Fold:
Amino acid sequence: MNATVIAMEGTETVFEDAEKTFIELSNSQRLQIINALISSKMNLTLIAKHLGITMQEAHRNFNRLMEAGIVSKDSNGAYSLTTFGNTIVTQIPSISFLSKNKAYFSDHYFADLPMKFVQRIGSLDNSTFVQGLVAVIEEIKEMYRHSEEFIYGMIPQVPLDLMEVAVKVVKDRNISFNYILPKNAAIPKRGKDFLNDINFHDLLKNGLVERKMTEEVKVSVVLNEKKALVMFPSIKGETDMNGAFLGSINRNDDNDNNNMLFHEWCLDYFRYCWLRSRPFDNTKLREV
Structure:
């Protein structure tokens, strides 16, 4: 038997194991049980009552989950997730996010998004989709207006109305504004005059505004300390600003974990790109 055949047989074994796991996860009751066990152990009676199912249904589903190694039972009859089960749970939001947005991702993609961010794509599961260019621009403006600590942004172009709102907030509140633009980014012809009029150079000099440049921007993010927004490129390869995923966090709520994950994803991605971007070069901008 040659090495290729052996390798293929090994792959089949891996897929068989994965198939068994997917079969157990393809049932809504079992998914509900797994979700219920994330926060605490539960016995048969409690889970049946919690899900509104019969004891027989609960028992049958628990047996299947135990056979799959996802759930275990202690000596007191309480069920809990195994290490394998806890790990599987972390993957469900990714499947959920992609499933809910199948239509969107039929003509959008992740482009050059690093795999470590693709693997965390479930962090976006609790987001709201904002439809339409005008709605997206207005959401960004509102984000700017309510910023109190910082504004971070990485978008493919700079509409003048966005620039005006951002600079006003930076000057009025003395907050940090960091942004990344792609080489050959389109800027409005009146943009340079506007920046001269508001002494933009002084904002750069005192460090309130910092900017960098990258080869291209495909996945775009805009965020402040409370809100974040991400836009993915169409299959043509350009950021599509006609739709965006939006999330906000309640900083006074320590249990607002889902929205915090969304915000952290966007913040981590911006910082990742910031560290890999080059010094800003005004000569590379394109006036339109």
